[in-house]
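I had to read the description of the data format several times before I understood it. In essence, backbone conformation is discretised, so a fold becomes a row of integers matching the chain in length. I therefore recommend that a typical entry be quoted early in the introduction. For illustration, here is how one protein appears when written out as sequence plus structure tokens.

***
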Amino acid sequence: MDTVLFDLGAVLIDWNPRYLYRPLFNGDEKAMEHFLAEIVPGWWNHDIDAGKSLTQAVAERIREHPEHAAMIALWKDSWEKMLRDEIAGSVEILGELRKKGHRLHALTNWSAETFPIARHRFDFLKWFEDIVVSGDVGLAKPDPRIFALTIERCRLVPARTVFIDDSLRNVEAGRNAGMHALHFRDPDQLRDDLNRLGML
């Protein structure tokens, strides 16, 4: 295997809406988790990742939940507060793979509107030959079509490609696309997995 296809969020970049909302709920974890699960749920953010504009998505949720209008609006207006630092151990591994001469690509579920913030902040993103951003292509993992698009656009040979993602659904989709898929849990485990494959 000579190619590694990385997910970005929760693998190389620490992104979590709790960083924005926890201080606003004054330590009430139960209320915050209810808000994240019911008012701005994962499927809603997935629609944004797949190409829906932030403005449209936020406006729709505010119409459905006007009592939470101010909090919902922050998803767009203060999005950058959800973004923390690089995950140092993972970026270290990325650098080692780069030095070994492996081809490096990324496939991320990310809004086309906010991804430029990450590009500006994280220099290591320049190490990738290409980054397929779901919001740019109007498809999101685990849709098989975004894997097919990535394989074609990045000229990947699936049997020679290791795919790394923190979502089990996405890992399974990558495996179904013919890649050797690894479930990311933490950098130490990723290092062990890549060592077993002889990649490091």
The longest helix spans residues 88-99. The longest strand covers residues 103-108. The mean pLDDT is 98. The beta strands are 3-6, 13-15, 83-86, 103-108, 130-133, 161-165, 180-183.
